[in-house]
């Protein structure tokens, strides 16, 4: 059901410093910061040949990553994101298998403008998992 690893997300206390570290020390291509008010984060993507690293920083009051950063002041890995072809079929399958979809269980638009959902970390070996639907975007760009 899952496809390739889309990205690994890391919460950082200083987005500019983290971006500079990846760009200067590691020589990676780094995108400009993009605020995502609906998700309470500002995000930067580090482009790698085989995947991406998403740098996350809290945005606004009640940011879901602020609590994570409060408990991990230096930052740290927040979630992994896997691609799926059909997010609704994936949700149906996972719920039938006993997995919990966070929030209201319905996909929201993610950082790439595609539908995403998050799965409870207690159901996936202590790891927060994001699923991102990519089939529709690929079909649209191919046409």
CATH topology: 2,3-Dihydroxybiphenyl 1,2-Dioxygenase, domain 1
Give the quaternary arrangement of the chains: single chain
Query: CATH H-level name... which superfamily?
Result: 2,3-Dihydroxybiphenyl 1,2-Dioxygenase, domain 1
Largest beta-sheet characterization = 9 strands, mixed
**What is the N-to-C order of secondary-structure elements (H for helix, E for strand)?**
EHEEEEHEHEEEH
Looking at the overall shape, the CATH architecture is Roll
CATH domain class: Alpha Beta
Specify the number of helices. 4
Helix content: 10-25%
The amount of beta strand, in percent, is: 35-45%
Shape: globular
Number of DSSP strand runs: 9
Q: Over the alpha carbons, how many angstroms does the gyration radius reach?
A: 15 Å
- Total tally of structural domains: 1
Q: What structural class do helix, strand and pairing data support?
A: alpha+beta
Low-confidence stretches: 137-143
């Amino acid at each position: 059901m899952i496809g390739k690893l889309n990205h690994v997300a890391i919460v950082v206390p200083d987005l500019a410093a983290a971006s500079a570290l990846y760009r200067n020390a590691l020589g990676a291509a780094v995108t400009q910061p993009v605020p995502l008010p609906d998700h309470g984060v500002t995000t930067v993507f580090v482009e790698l040949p085989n995947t991406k690293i998403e740098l996350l920083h809290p945005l606004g009051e009640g940011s879901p990553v602020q609590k994570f950063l409060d408990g991990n002041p230096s930052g740290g890995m927040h979630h992994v994101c896997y691609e799926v072809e059909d997010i609704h079929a994936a949700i149906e399958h996972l719920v039938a298998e006993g997995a919990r979809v966070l929030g209201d269980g319905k996909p929201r638009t993610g950082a790439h403008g595609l539908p995403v959902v998050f799965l409870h970390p207690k159901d996936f070996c202590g790891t927060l998992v994001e699923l991102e639907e990519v089939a529709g975007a690929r079909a649209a760009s191919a046409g």
